[in-house]
Amino acid sequence: MQEYFAKASEKDITRSIVEEFTTEFLSYVESDVIIVGGGPSGLTAARDLASNGIRTVVLESNNYFGGGFWLGGYLMNKATVRAPGQKFFDELGVPYKEYSEGLYVASAPSACSKLISAACDAGAFMLNMNKFDDVVTRNGRVAGVVTNWTPVSALPRAITCVDPVALETKCVIDATGHDAVVANTLRSRNMLELEGFGPMDVPTSEDLVVEKTSEVFPGLVLTGMAVATAYGLPRMGPTFGSMLESGRRAAKIAEEIVKG
Ligand code: 48H
User: What's the domain range around 213?
Assistant: First the structure.
């Protein structure tokens, strides 16, 4: 047999995985911003924050990042944005076409993969297969997240006494979409009210989601569909401009929090 590949063996491969992951994980046990949810809003926030040198973690329960951005709607993989949302396609180098005046359509896999790639390349720590479990609070602020490996929640009840771990941070962004999972941990303790998102009304919803992207509790910023859930805003269906713009706005707010 002609040897084509280098001689690294099983033990070297195992060491490289364990050491590299653990070293990176340890360096993010304390960070500037933790974004829970790696869909379009969370990834946009991650890219902007990490590009500005803010130490950012993206915590995602799925194996894959991208959330609902892989498909446009109705299981069809075309992503739409309304102007000026196409500026994000321009920034990411996503080819698109103007379908009608001010309405742009692109390949969802192209847009989604380029956004994931941009967040990684900007330097965000991408932590997949991690399910957000709870918040850490200190002195009336959200000061971290409690997380566990996603498969732990799928274990039979008899063996689920697997404690999670916590990561400390200066600011948490809830980018978990319709369920607003982070905000819901505060709601369940009567520390925050959530109205639940309303019926679809694209022209109203997109503007309001961006406008209402904000710090809803000290140390907790909402972005994307979670904003609609918190404020009872109409849903916007399969169009993504406000998700991307809301992510950008959340990043600006989080950066101000981090810089005090
Ligand atoms: C870790 C978690 C957890 C958890 C969930 O749903 P997303 O794509 O969210 P957005 O807000 O960036 O985009 C919403 C958009 O995709 C959409 O659905 C629209 C526009 N709908 C409009 C309408 O009318 O219905 O991504 C959320 C991410 C996903 O990747 C989840 O896996 C992840 O959050 N997530 N991650 N721990 N407990 N829960």
Answer: 32-259
Residue at 64 is within a domain: yes
Tens-place pLDDT, residues 72-111: 999 999 999 999 999 999 999 999 999 999 999 999 999 9
With a pLDDT cut of 90, the percent of the chain lying above it is 96
Q: What's this model's pTM, rounded to 2 decimal places?
A: 0.98
Q: Give the residue whose CA is nearest to atom 16 of ligand 1.
A: 68
In ligand 1, the atom with minimum distance to the C-alpha of 65 is 30
Please indicate whether residue 205, judged by its CB atom, sits closer than 6 Å to ligand 1: no
Q: Please give the distance, rounded to the nearest whole angstrom, from the Cα atom of residue 235 to the centre of ligand 1.
A: 13
What's the rounded Cα separation, in Å, for the pair 135 and 182? 7
Q: How many domains does the chain have?
A: 1
pLDDT surpasses 90 at 173: yes
73 in a structural domain:
yes
Atom index in ligand 1 nearest the CA of residue 224 equals 11
Q: What confidence score (pLDDT) does residue 161 get?
A: 79
C-alpha of residue 14 to centroid of ligand 1, in Å: 33
